[in-house]
């Protein structure tokens, strides 16, 4: 390639390496990052009068136990990061993630031990995601979202020919820790997950062995008991390999959803898109709708469940500078989808939790979600007959 293109590619590769190193660095410093919160509990305890301290004699023991939970979380994270060794044993880690530890060393050499607050929040968020996706405790929350999407896919593709050469193919954007992808495959479909966050990519690549994590130990509010706050969660609740009946049925792609799937090779590549708590992660939800249209075969479906939190709406407060964030009402999103050419198949408002602590006194992370199915029209408006047909003219990408 021309020198200037080669330079641009080198710059892009270095930028990706720095991003990977920043994430691995934040995970590496999880324990030291949350220590100030535990120190705050100790400081507040020390400010109590002797009479008040006598009323809560087990608080010092509770604080010490919380430190042990955080330590065990760090052991899990350290074991995870140890898998990512540049030029290590082939096959242990995906090649694009293998440099994580070396990149973290480079990042730390440049910035020291400092971790940005939003990166520390994401490290805690990873632990809660693990509990949601890969523990028995998360089963009820998964049923509210994943369960509905899986039942809808089963209904939509009930007529898929038993003798078809391949099962229906489903794209799962914002795949997180890949539980929904594996459940789709376990149901008899093909699935391809897409995820942008290195926090999720590193963790999902590692979650093959059994661990105990403590996702709620940092939260001192709305706890019914000390045991609830410090409880361990066993993960994973099922071995991921047990959900994949054969080779070639599951794949994962890393990168920005819009950039990856707007490419020509993904035109009319999937029979369905299963989007769970995903549409509002877009800078521009209209672009997401266009890209989803692009990836679907005629007759294919978008099955979506989630709120409209719009993750980039307040990003300027922690990233600095203005960040594109197109915040539309549900009515406006639906109207835009119909204008692009989608047909509304079903529409329902449902309650679904997201990273909620099931034993907390405050269930704040329950959303009233839009659960809807849109279809890209095809010759016979059905995936089985449309899969081999001609693609309709797609909206411009």
Q: Could you explain how this protein is built, in words?
A:
- This protein is an alpha/beta fold.
- The chain has 15 helices and nine strands.
- The strands form two sheets. The protein has a seven-stranded mixed β-sheet with strand order 5-2-1-6-7-9-8. Strands 3-4 form a two-stranded antiparallel ribbon.
- β6, α12 (285-295) and β7 form a beta-alpha-beta unit.
- α2 runs antiparallel to α4 and α12 (285-295) runs parallel beside α14.
- Residues 382-397 have low confidence and may be disordered.
Question: Quick one: overall form?
Answer: globular
Q: What would the CATH topology of the largest domain be?
A: Rossmann fold
Determine Rg (CA atoms, Å).
Answer: 23 Å
Residue fraction in strands: 15-25%
Low-confidence stretches: 382-397
CATH architectural label of the largest domain: 3-Layer(aba) Sandwich
Helix tally equals 15
